[in-house]
Amino acid sequence: GPMGPVGSTGADGPMGPVGATGAVGPTGPVGVTGAVGPTGPSADNLCDCCYNPMKKVIEKIQESANGSIKRTFIGPYINETHAYIQIINVTANDCIVQLGKNSITDDPIFTSICKIAAIELTTDLDITLEPFPDPDTKTGECGCCERPIREYLKSIEGETVDIRVGNGQNVDIGDKIISDVGEGILRLDGTGTGTGSVKRSYVSICKILTIE
Predict the structure, then answer these.
(1) What does the domain layout of the chain look like in residue ranges?
(2) Across the strands, what pairs with 71?
(3) How far apart, in whole angstroms, are the C-alpha atoms of residue 188 and residue 143?
(4) Is the backbone peptide bond immediately before 135 cis, with ω within 30 degrees of 0?
(5) Is the confidence at residue 169, as pLDDT, over 70?
(6) Is residue 193 within 8 Å of 181, Cβ to Cβ?
């Protein structure tokens, strides 16, 4: 007889297992280079935390206590006894230091402010030091050299210390009391009372080698 009608579709069977992962395709081409980002801030150097504070100290001595300098420590070697000091403007933005013996013009010598390690005075001239940055976010040499020594000196303020600056040869500022610590500058008070004895010293923190 004739073929009967097609029956209805049965229910779907269960899903078979997942097949194996195919091979990784080839890497696509490299995209175009993006735009260069903005230049980051420059790291702070010692001129940012020691030059300007020492310049202000010299300006104050020049204004209020000239002739009272006992010794000036310059660079790594020199221990100078010229009593007078002044800042000379070389250009609108640049200046140097002049030292003189019995007057500013007597046997003068010239040097850079950044070479001044310390100045000892026979008077107790009070100079307001630069306050600490708060928060102190300076980087570079200011962050790794000046700041740690400054913070340590602040922690022992009031104690008697021996400070060596320059190269440590005949530049010992000994038996002095830490009376103030500012950014880049340490102030020491002497214990001597005789005429001509050192009453006060201003030291560049960047030039300190050892503290005892």
Answers:
(1) 46-211
(2) 120
(3) 23
(4) yes
(5) no
(6) no
